[in-house]
TrEMBL record, chain A:
GO molecular function: transmembrane transporter activity
Family: Belongs to the binding-protein-dependent transport system permease family. HisMQ subfamily.
Pfam families documented for this protein: BPD_transp_1
GO cellular component: ATP-binding cassette (ABC) transporter complex
SUPFAM superfamilies reported in the protein's UniProt record: MetI-like
Entry's transmembrane regions: 12-38, 59-77, 89-107, 128-149, 155-176, 188-214
Keyword Lipid metabolism in annotation: no
Domain of life from the UniProt record: Bacteria
ABC transmembrane type-1 domain mapped to chain residues: 14-210
The protein's name in its UniProt record: Glutamate ABC transporter permease
UniProtKB/TrEMBL annotation, chain B:
Transmembrane feature ranges: 18-36, 74-94, 106-128, 140-166, 187-209, 240-264
Source species of the chain: Streptomyces shenzhenensis
GO biological process: amino acid transport
PROSITE patterns per UniProt: ABC_TM1
Protein name: Amino acid ABC transporter permease
Protein family (similarity comment): Belongs to the binding-protein-dependent transport system permease family.
Length: 221, 300
């Protein structure tokens, strides 16, 4: 029944999905935190930039960004991300696109986390004479991150599902393999079920585990 | 401007902010300069490349509007089909009978856990194998199928959260005056929940509009993004210009939808006639991920 799987690298495809997810997750966490800091900070120009970035990027389809990174950055502007091999370039460009897109959502998740920190916390910190960096870095963000675990989990799950968009530029991840298999093999329902179960295995445990973590680390108020 | 995070700025802080602004401006200018020089280097700033969009309307009538029409058609169809399905699933998940509740929960959790693209690919193959839908309209069917399956389950959660966000007193009062469960739902809870979840539904529309672009990239569905590809081929490799125009249109549509949702949310929160229960724009991201999300309904 599963004979047709021979000749297809199912595990490899899902491994690519995982790699795309993890690399873009780390990148977008860093860039998103910076954006969030700019967005709540005292410098008007940075605040404006971060707000504009989030509003623009959130409203562009990820597909446009990913396709642009291949057709625009790679083909037209010859930005190869330091690799001569097309496959590697496409992979890195996909990570770049996913990272830039997801950062906007990370920023929003963190901002919602910052909003859960009671005003008194920041006021007390200011009363002690801490400056903005200290208020944010020592008092507000540590609490905000703990409250943001839940929203960030949702961002991570959305990111896992979004990595399939990289199939549009030929990155050999799970959805790309699925398209290939459906075109060549007859077992449509079985193939779809395998891929769907694969994604369930990636997203559901992540949600359950990080949901548990979110409850564990949440600041009791 | 001050916020709770920092004090009103004195001379020292003001000087520091000017410094930060200057550094940031220099960095931004450097990045912009690099972008423009790269573009100029590859001849992407030439008037020829931008002329179709800025110097005439032909590109719009020939490529962009037809593409946009397909995008909006797919989005509207998906929303219209997914809404009633989602309502049924959402209410089923609140049922007292396990044989109704459990299957509905399984369906909702399953379709929220897998990517839309997988559903679209499945739809595409299914229609070509088991139906005689012409290959011209197959992409539209596949895109709408994928979007409906996914969004019906997200909307189911929105409906459920909308109903749960209403104060308990509503259903208690309904029971006290002797309404049946069915009547309580139909006459008391649903009408109020629909109002409460309007902002969430509008912001889900943004997600749908964005996801239609997948159809253009992977399914040969001739929507707005696909028109960018056609245009850059037709007008001589003006990829940057075509993508910019398409991105601007997407941002314009989605930004107005997002703003409308935000306006609705503020209006409902201030409203005196309702219970004040509202499912905000932020709730949608929560409800789109698989798993339980108690916080969302508590906020309402």
């Amino acid at each position: 029944m599963f004979d047709f799987l021979e000749g297809y690298d199912l595990l490899g495809a899902f491994w690519t999905t995982v790699q795309l997810t993890l690399l873009s997750a780390v990148g977008s966490l860093i860039w998103g935190t910076l954006l969030a800091a700019m967005r709540v900070g005292p410098v008007p120009l940075m605040r404006g930039f971060a707000t504009a970035y989030v509003n623009i990027v959130r409203n562009i389809p990820l597909t446009v960004i990913i396709l642009f990174s291949s057709l625009g950055l790679y083909s037209t502007l010859n930005i190869t991300m330091g690799s001569e091999v097309v496959k590697t370039s496409n992979f890195r460009l996909a990570v770049l696109g996913l990272m830039l897109y997801t950062a906007a959502f990370v920023c929003e998740a963190l901002r919602s986390g910052i909003n859960t920190v009671p005003v008194g916390q920041a006021e007390a910190a200011r009363a002690l004479g801490l400056n903005f960096t200290q208020v944010l870095g020592l008092v507000v963000l540590p609490q905000a991150f703990r409250a943001a675990v839940g929203p960030l989990t949702n961002v991570l799950i959305a990111l896992t599902k979004n990595t399939t968009v990289a199939a549009a530029i030929g990155v050999a991840e799970a959805a790309y393999l699925m398209k290939e298999m459906v075109e060549n093999e007859a077992q449509l329902v079985l193939i779809s079920a395998i891929i769907a179960v694969g994604f369930c295995c990636l997203t559901l445990p992540t949600g359950l585990f990080l949901g548990w973590v979110a409850k564990k680390v949440a600041v009791k108020r | 401007m001050s916020s709770v995070l920092y004090d009103a700025q004195g001379p020292h802080a003001k000087r520091r902010n000017v410094l930060y602004t200057a550094v940031f401006t220099v960095a931004a200018v450097a990045v912009l300069w690099w972008v423009f020089s790269t573009l100029a280097d590859k001849d992407q700033l030439a008037w020829e490349k931008w002329k179709p969009f800025l110097g005439g309307t032909e590109a719009y009538t020939a490529y962009i509007w037809p593409g946009l029409e397909n995008t909006l058609k797919a989005a509207a169809l998906s929303m219209i089909i997914a809404l009633p399905l989602g309502a049924v699933l959402g209410i089923a998940r609140l049922s007292d009978h396990a044989w109704v509740r459990v299957p509905a929960s399984v369906v909702v959790e399953f379709f929220r856990a897998i990517p839309v693209l997988v559903l679209m690919i499945f739809g595409m193959a299914w229609y070509s194998e088991y139906t005689d839908i012409s290959s011209d309209s197959r992409p539209l069917y596949a895109v709408v199928t994928g979007l409906v399956l996914y969004n019906a389950s997200v909307l189911a959660e929105i409906v459920r959260a909308g109903i749960l966000s209403l104060p308990r007193g509503q259903s208690e009062a309904a029971m006290a005056i002797g309404l049946r469960k069915n009547q309580t739902m139909r006459l008391v809870l649903l009408p109020q929940a629909v109002t409460a979840m309007l902002p969430a539904i509008v912001s889900q529309l943004v997600v749908i509009v964005k996801d239609t672009a997948l159809g253009g990239a992977v399914m040969t569905f001739p929507e707005l993004l696909a028109s960018a590809n056609t245009m850059s081929a037709y007008y001589g490799a003006n990829t940057i210009a075509s993508f910019t125009v398409v991105a601007v249109i997407f941002v314009a549509i989605n930004f107005s939808l997002t703003s409308f949702a935000g306006w609705l949310e503020r209006r409902l929160r201030q409203g005196k006639k309702s219970t004040g229960a509202v499912l905000g724009v932020d709730a949608v991201a929560e409800l789109a991920a698989p798993g339980e999300h108690e916080e969302v309904t508590k906020v309402g």
